[in-house]
Design goal:
By secondary structure, the chain is an alpha+beta fold. It has one domain. Helix content is 17%, strand content 20%. It contains 6 helices and 10 strands; from the N terminus they run H-H-E-H-E-H-H-E-E-E-E-E-E-E-E-H. The chain has a 9-stranded mixed beta barrel with strand order 1-3-4-5-6-7-8-9-10. The protein is globular, with a radius of gyration of 20 Å. The chain starts with 10 loop residues before the first helix and ends with a helix.
Length: 351
């Protein structure tokens, strides 16, 4: 089924998470309120220094971190050849966000079933980021071309679909056993990128460390959240025949940066080949309240060369607790709608 792959978020969980996100974010505020905020300003400038240390001597990355700016994954044609926006362009973009009518009325053209279905209380409007794309390599800010033999799923992903765990192949949404993870509330997919910041998707994570492992909880609005475990004790990856929903992660330190290699995915990203796809992440605390997360995607069977994104995050104040359990299945009407729609299409085809 190719038409009905939208899910309707759990209103209660989404509202609570988004309201708290807006309350603590140093950049994720409307233009009017951001200027009045007395919170520490989060900056994207990398100023590596001597980070605080854990009791056992590793750099301390613990805490709750959130994306503080809205940055597109790829660079638009309008910004071709330009890595950063000017201050005037930032101001104009934020002013335009301030004019958001709040999506309080149904769309007149009824282009989508849920167009205009959520009013402004469901939205988390982040300030515009200076970068014109999350992708920093290649320098043009674009995902590299596909190899000639790339799977059809990769071509669908390259067109902008498949990034949030929604099905794109023929018949994938026909039955509950094959519907992907997001409508089934199975948790967030990797690599957990902030691709839809209005719904705070991919914007908040909490890191907990121990000498031999690390845990990263990914809070993602209504999608079910996710818990990553990164082993730091030098053990090898699991055998290649074993596949994991969030992949198999192994970490080590390079100076003050945590380097994590993740393989053995049960599904690819944007149609990549699960047998050859891997992620290399670098987490670096650039200032006391700033964290830089760089991710390199490699798959010689999908892309002509590796590509890298950067995500800049700020730290939530210690006195606040902004992580919520993502209770996804409360009134999961999206799944019902997908299956009912498919049965209706089947009946129409029979006629």
């Amino acid at each position: 089924m190719s038409k009905r792959n939208l899910t309707i978020p759990c209103a209660l969980t989404g509202v609570l998470g988004l309201l708290l996100l807006a309350a603590v974010s140093t950049r994720g505020q409307t233009p009017a309120s951001a200027a009045k905020s007395g919170a520490p300003k989060a900056t994207g400038a990398a100023r590596p220094g001597t980070p605080s240390r854990t009791a056992w001597g590793d750099p301390d990355l613990q805490g709750t971190w959130f994306v503080f700016a809205d940055v597109p994954l790829e660079r638009s044609a309008a910004n071709a050849g330009k890595e950063f926006l000017t201050e005037a362009e930032l101001a104009a973009a934020d002013a335009q966000k301030g004019l958001n009518p709040g999506r309080n009325a149904r769309s007149a053209d009824k282009a989508q079933d849920v167009s205009g279905a959520y009013n402004a209380v469901f939205n988390s409007v982040l300030k515009t980021g200076k970068r014109t794309s999350m992708i920093i390599d290649p320098p043009d800010g674009k995902i590299p071309p596909l190899v000639a033999s790339a799977a059809p799923a990769a071509r669908a992903g390259q067109a902008g679909r498949g990034a949030l765990g929604l099905g794109t192949g023929p018949g994938v949404n026909d039955n509950p056993e094959t519907v992907p993870q997001s409508p089934r509330c199975l948790g967030v997919p990797m690599p957990f990128l902030p691709l839809n910041t209005l719904f705070a998707q991919g914007t908040v994570m909490q890191i907990v460390q121990s000498p031999k492992s690390m845990g990263i909880y990914m809070e993602d609005d209504h999608a079910g959240g996710g818990n990553r475990v990164i082993f730091m004790d030098g053990r090898p990856h699991a055998p290649s025949k074993l596949k994991f929903y969030l992949g198999d992660s192994r970490g080590h330190w390079e100076g003050n940066s945590l380097v994590v290699e993740t393989t053995n995915f049960s599904q690819g990203f944007r149609g990549s080949n699960i047998e050859t796809y891997k992620m290399i992440e670098r987490f670096t605390r650039t200032e006391a309240n700033n964290l830089k997360r760089e991710i390199t995607f490699e798959d010689p069977k999908t892309w002509t060369k590796p590509w890298t994104v950067v995500i800049e995050m700020a730290r939530a104040p210690e006195e606040r607790h902004m992580i919520f359990d993502s209770a996804c299945h409360e009134g999961n009407y999206g799944m019902i709608g997908i299956l009912v729609g498919n049965r209706r299409e089947e009946q129409t085809e029979k006629k």
